[in-house]
Amino acid sequence: MFNKIIFFLFFSCSFLFANINNVFDIQAKMLDNIALNLEFNIDKKAYLYSDKIKIKLLSQDKDITEFLNFPQSKQYKNYQIYSGKFDVLIPLGLINNLDEFSLRVDYLGCAYDGFCYEPLAKKIDVKKNANIYEISTSQIDLKQFSTPKDIKTDKSGNSSNHQNIAGNLSKNSVFVSLITFFGYGLLLALTPCILPMIPILSSIIVSKGDVGKKHSFIISLVYVFSMSIAYTIAGVLASLFGMGIQGILQIPFVIISFSLIFVFFALSMFGVFKFQMPLFIQNFINSKTENKTGFFGVVIMGFLSALIVGPCIAAPLAGALLFIAQSGNILLGGLALFVMSFAMGIPLLLIGLGGKRFLPKPGIWMEEINKLFGFIMLIMAAWMLSRIINQNMTMLIYGVIGIFFTIFMGGFDRAKSTFMKFKKSICIFVFIYSTLLITGFASGATDVSKPLQNIISQKNNNTMDNKEISFKYAKNLKELKDIIHSSKKPVMIDFWATWCVNCKELENVFQDDEVKKKLFEFELVKIDVTNSNNDNKEMMKEFAVYGPPALIFFKDGVELKNKQIVGFITAKDFLQHIKEI
Asked: Which CATH superfamily is 18-139 part of?
């Protein structure tokens, strides 16, 4: 079995590195000076999509595909394809018997074992010298992806981050691409993307009892590996089907269900009941793991944590998704996603490597530790619910949890030791902050980092500061294009969803006084992609958006691709980004 796996990997990788001209070869030659014959030679391991072959006369910018006689295509799965050898004849009369002309042939192909090549194009130059036609062919470098026909694009300056990443992934070697994405993963490990997973993994390790450093590291490794597999599968599906599996898993019913699961775990930590698997399942797992605690639960939590807790759409992730969607190369795109997400989990591996040194030891403190992780689970439940409830209500929930934390962790008890005094100080700090959150809720505030924002802003009578920015809503692509073409201001399009945490953080950025003043110079449009309907899919596909938040900018009807923003951005960086628009 192992030899078969090695053979499959070797076969797949060798085909991935194969010269593209050996896989899809096109030769052109003149027949009796009356027609140009294009001879397609396709490797036996690959095929071309029949509807992706386009032939254009460049001098007249004329698509002549529909005027040509192609051979009968064949059915493969749900597609019509060509394989092996076939010819396409182009009569010179069709191109007005020109003595000199150039053709462009676009085509897209895949390998039968599952992955696809990026879109390809070949240029064919024909020049008549006396009575002899000189023919030369060259491969066209497709550096830019296609742009909607009725929307102009400003290609000046640099592309946005995720577009640069997609382009680099398509041009660099496989090894360089994977090393690059490993570096991206390390950078993402320093962002809040990975933070929600730390308490989950820590609670898993603590729940295993007195385990050694080696076993703690193995638990972390299994967790990170499962998380990486989940990110890879979700990313590939997101690219292939035009929607993220995370989007499916962010619907209210699913969010509420998983929030209840976290509450269930919290109650178990508080000792309300004892939660464990049936004895016969434990015995089976123990027998398979040399009498050590099994990893099935760790695998499940790692998988679900990636999909449910950490939906972080950042530029590297969006770049990999864009590459997969445009090229269809599932193997390279999937490997890039796996390497990146595994690198994101490096801090989690360090937690496991530290074993008991980084986590409280079980024993007389276990009851306090269980309470601590119980409250962490409650915070995770509230954090997930924040995707479907308003931020104001979220502040109240956090505040109430903080008050209960202070009481149950002994914040008002007499401190008899230095450690107890330290713990009491933390509890009092949590109590003060929780009180501010509840006060902020009463004042209508929405930012947990600025609970008194509304109270302070009431003292400011500046008219501009009190005036609110307003967004138009576009429900379909036609409405969106109408707004773009009719606006006399620059246009900012905000792809947004109720379940998107970074979207809500971005809303707070838009409320910054300086940002707000600048946004009054724009026509603001919001696209609500909470529900994955056909109209939303069409708009996201049009602008290569694979998840919210994403900001698209237009000026004078021209898309500013170098200004596109994917993910969260601070107020300072946002102002710097849009100051020249």
From this structure: Thiol:disulfide interchange protein DsbD, N-terminal domain (2.60.40.1250)
